[in-house]
Fold:
Amino acid sequence: MCLHMGLYTIFQCLAVLGGLTVYPRDTQVIAGDTAKLTCSTNNPSMAIYWNYYPVGVDPSSPDSRPTYVYRYGDVIKRFRARFQVERNESAGATNLVIGQVNASDAGTYICQDNDGFGETGRAQLIVLGMQDIVWRYTISFRAPQKCILKTIHLRKVFQFFSFFNKKNSF
Structure:
């Protein structure tokens, strides 16, 4: 439809393609709660797509590849258990809703209109909450022959780990 070159045709194409009217915003959510990222276009006849980049991946890097979340009117299979899309076609809205948010959901979410070829909006999803950290270590030493020495050895081991944890705490 927009293959003809000329000033009038270019303006026609821009009117057909449209643009985003509501952009997703950076969102903080507590682990286990629900997050909602909003995105709307002024051309509801063209679909909005959602992509995801995990924490540590720069979406603007040429080497990074998106993880598709919502394309072709459907949530990608691996996300269907907790991810949903709320659509309001008359408003051009395609909002991403993530239930039971966990730490692995944190990262950058990008919505893109015009069937994934148009304007983009991006937001950071920040997941707050306790993260279980398991430290595994092995302590091996010979048991001393006297009980008093055993107690002294254990104190030294605990003092060492106490010092180690204070020095390398988060």
